[in-house]
């Protein structure tokens, strides 16, 4: 009888440790703010996605993709990647600054989305209280080159360490800017429509708090691009709130909030939470 397939990573990976932290959901929101600062990346989304009409459906589909890649079998992860590549291969958009039409699966755009996502997951997890050594943080980025390959990137072209990601951001900074699309996207992320009339309840306040936390976790250069003035003590307050929320969420039994993909993985591998 063959051994059960652990998937691309498995329970001993740093990836499983990072993605066990519920606060990475805040990291996912943070990554969207970052992605919107790339003029072509945000144009590709604005011109091809129905996220404004169905934001929660889009969020659910993205979450399902991420958890499938992290916890699914190798075949499930590869199938999810093939589906994403097929969708992207049919999409183009127009650069509003130059009028040039481009493919949304250009390596530069795929790399930007990948790095902002994994860096945001890692940042939220660590600032939320997950203790990782410098070597373990590097290992997370190295492991995540496997997810980059799924969307069509050459892993050799993907930053695979903390230092490499910092260098990548420094290299990309001159090409980032706040466009009309990115400003509109940032506003939408901050005040999204809430279903079932929840926008008129205290849930709106909670939603704004999560958005504020995601913005507070942005790099200083990203907040400057959004035109947000530096506020004395803001970084300290963000760190305190992130650590508090991370610990609070970690106190919730994982089986109550784990994704279906993680639950199936635990059962497949005969593991207990």
Model description:
Strands 1-2 form a two-stranded antiparallel sheet. The chain has helices spanning 14-19, 24-35, 39-48, 55-71, 74-89, 107-127, 134-150, 162-172, 180-190, 203-216, 220-225, 234-250, 254-257, 260-268, and strands at residues 92-94, 101-103. A hairpin with a 6-residue loop joins strand 1 (92-94) and strand 2. The chain is globular, with a radius of gyration of 18 Å. It has 273 residues and is mainly alpha-helical. It has 14 helices and two strands; from the N terminus they run αααααββααααααααα. The longest helix is centred in the middle third of the chain and has 21 residues, at 107-127.
Please render the helix and strand layout as text.
Elements: H1 14-19, H2 24-35, H3 39-48, H4 55-71, H5 74-89, E1 92-94, E2 101-103, H6 107-127, H7 134-150, H8 162-172, H9 180-190, H10 203-216, H11 220-225, H12 234-250, H13 254-257, H14 260-268
Antiparallel strand pairs: 1-2
Helix pairs in contact: 2-6, 2-10, 4-5, 4-14, 6-7
Written as H for each helix and E for each strand, in order along the chain, the element string is HHHHHEEHHHHHHHHH
So how many helices?
14
The number of strands is 2
Oligomer: single chain
Q: Summarize model confidence as the mean pLDDT.
A: 93
Main sheet record: 2 strands, antiparallel
Supply the helix-strand structural class.
mainly alpha
Radius of gyration: 18 Å
Strand order of the largest sheet: 1-2
Give the CA-CA distance, first to last residue: 25 Å
Unreliable stretches covering 5 or more consecutive residues: none
Helical fraction equals 55-70%
User: What proportion strand?
Assistant: under 5%
